[in-house]
Structure formats: structure tokens, C-alpha cells
Amino acid sequence: MRAIGDFAPLWENSDSTSRSGGGDGGAHRGTKRLRRDSYDENAQVTSSQASSYLPREFVTGARRTDPHYVSGHEPGASLPSASFPHSAADKQRTSTSKRAIEDELASLNPPLYSHPRISSRDNSHNSLQRQHAAVMSTILHVSLQRGDFVRASQAFSTLLRVGSGVNALSIRSGGNWGIGAEILLRRRPQQKPPPRRRHRQDSTSSVDTNADDNDTSLSEPPSEANSILLSNLSAAKEYYESLILQYPFRKTAPHATDARTFYPPLFGLMIYEATLLAQQETPSSSLSTNDDDSSGRAVELRAARAIATRMDDLLASPPYDRFVPLLRLRGMVGLWIADLIEGDADEHDDDDDRPRSGAAERDRARVWFERCRKAGGDVPDDI
After folding, report:
1. Is 20 exposed, middle or buried (0-12, 13-18, 19+ CB in 10 A)?
2. Could you tell me which residues belong to the region Disordered (predicted)?
3. CA distances to 3, 237, 256 from 262, in Å
4. 310, 304 in Cβ contact below 8 A?
5. Rounded distance, CA 170 to CA 160, Å?
6. What is the count of structural domains for the chain?
7. Distance between CA atoms of residues 343 and 286, nearest Å
8. Domain range holding 338?
9. Could you give the CA distance from residue 21 to residue 42 in angstroms, rounded to a whole number?
10. Angle at 232 between CA 231 and CA 235, to 5 degrees
11. Would 8 be classed as within a structural domain?
12. Residue 196 domain flag
């Protein structure tokens, strides 16, 4: 028997076969038996102790099937409720509605959201705003009927500045965009009031004088009152240009009021401006000469060709390549150019190229009318 240090266990090899066999093989097998016996002794612990300190990888296969082990529940503890493991949460979840969120955002200072049902104070404010909008609308219509386009312009701009909401004036609905253009075309610059008199005069004479002054300041010739100034034409064109940029065509809204609605009146104003410029270049009929008529027609022809070039650029891309109003208008512009060329050719008989140019413009206009028919538009038969 061999004694080893106090820190190591005593072990005696009683196997005669191992002793007689010699070598280190028997000692090695004895060491394996000692380790196996030591492991069997450790495996006799209770299930509660094993579940408390044994890792998952050292638990036997029978132990792994124990429901307590699988659920991680101690055997001595009380069983959970019937709803385990899908028991309810400790805190009840509060549901937040859209109305509550709107009220909370509207109650901030300053408010981040506003809707008409926040409070009675806001409802009264909206009612007052609605009354002011109704008054402005009445002033607008009365001013248009009386021809007071300056006051109508002020009322129209006030309605546009109301903003979005139930009281706002939508410029695209109800043809309101046309009202704005008409105001810009007919508006006259404001006249200065007559100067005040320093000395008192007789009441009757002062009344008569003031009446005469008012009649003189407000009276205008019929032709001048109904005419349109070139400055007003420029303002109306800028107005249509801004609407075209602000409301472009969107494929998702094919029936909306957009740039397609504003292009025809814009080109109509450009045509009217060209005729006015030609009339300014041409003096009255009693004093006009062939040279004056030719210069006016040349100005009108240059303006007409500029309009045709811009329309060609626009009609080269969708959705305007099948837009019937612009296709028909482009054909009419082509006939207008042809008439100007042929009219100028009658005064210059030595130029043989002008008749051919006029015929070419008419053929080009027929092509535009044919495209208009294919797009579903109506074209007069005599064209």
C-alpha cells in the first residue's frame, strides 16, 4: 500500500490481473474506474439541488424532460395560474384615440394643431371669420358690377389671404382664377383726390365746383374706359404664368384645374397684345400710308411667330401633345400667320417667296387641325 500526500485520496490497486500484467495500462484503467465511481456518488443529489447549481449541459436526459426543468420552475414552489405562460401584463395598456391626440396638440402653447371642434371660443372665432369673408365676397361682386376694379382688387386679395379652411377662397374652384385675371385687365391706376381749398367760399358755389371736379375726374371717354392697357396685359400674363408654375399638371389628378386650364387664356392674351402693338405702330386710317401699314403688319407677324414657336415647344411633349384646345389654337395661329404673310405680299409684288411661305403656313396649320381631330376635337369643315 502506497501513501500519498494528505491532499490526495488513498487508493489501493487490488486487481491482481492489473498487478501481474505489469506496465501502466492497469493503473490507467483503475484511474478511470475511480472517476466513474466519484461521478455516480455526485449524481445522487436531489432534483432540487441539481436544478439549483447544475448547468444545463450536465443534466441527464431523464432530467431534461422534467416539466419543472423545462419551464424553469422550482419543484417546491407553487404552480402558476392556468393562463401561464400567457398571463396578462401588470399594467393595463391605455388606448389613445385620434381625437385625444388632436386635443392634446391643440392645447399646447403655441398650438401645434387646430381643428374646428377644439373649443367654443375657436368656434366663435371661425364664425366671425366666416362673416368677414361673406362681407368681402359681397364687396367683390358689387364692385365688379359697378366697374370699380380697384376696390374689387382689394377685396379679392383679402379673400386670397384668408388661408386654407372653410372660409378660404379657392382660386381654382368656381372660375375664381378668371375673376382675378379680369380685375388685372380692367384695373386703372388710382386717381389722386382734388386738393382742399384754403378759403371758404359760398356753399352753393362750392357744391357746384366740387360736383364739376368730380364729374371731370371720373368721366372718361367710352373708348378709353373699355380699352385695356398694355401694362395690364403684362400683369395678367404674369398672373397666368404664376398659376402655371403653382399648379402644374399631375397625372394622378387628370380632371383638376391645372396648367392645362391656364395655357389657352395665356396665349389668348399674347395674341391680343400682338394686335395692340400692331395698332400702335399703325396710325389712324386718314393719315396712314402703305409704309405705316407694312410696319404694323411686320410687328404683328414677328409677335405671331414668337407665339407659334412657344406653342410648338409646349405641344412637343405630353400631356399637351393631345390637348385639344391648344392644338386647335395652334392651327388658328398658323392661319393668322399665313394671312399676315399673304397680306404683306400683296403690297410687295416683287417678292415671289411670300406667297409660297403663306401656303406653307396654311399646310402646316392643316396638320395641326388634323391632330386636333385625331385627339377628339371639333374643327370647322371650311378650314
Report:
1. exposed
2. 1-98, 185-225
3. 114, 10, 12
4. no
5. 8
6. 2
7. 20
8. 247-383
9. 32
10. 90
11. no
12. no
